[in-house]
Amino acid sequence: QVQLVESGGGLVQPGGSLRLSCVASGGIFSMFLMGWYRQPPGKQRELVADINRDGTTNFADYAKGRFTISRDNAKKTVYLQMNNLTPEDTAVYYCRALLSGFRIIWGQGTQVTVSS
Question: What is d(CA 101, CA 69) in angstroms, rounded to the nearest whole number?
């Protein structure tokens, strides 16, 4: 049974940085396509970035140049480094794993609030 636990969210001022972490338990982490999604208040959940088994990455346009996604297979962890944050980045951030057979697992989410 694969489970995902996010951490690292919080309150940050505009222009600040945060690093989110997502630790997986169960399964073969190195085989998962891992991603970060977010859901701003009153809006639908949207892709932030994802990282494939081979390390190739994909970013939403608003994340390019500001956010970095990485993974440490030995630690079963995926990271999202977010820089130059703006109030528009305020959202609940979710970690997602795509497993074999197209099974999708979500974490519980971590709140990121960007405000002065």
Answer: 24
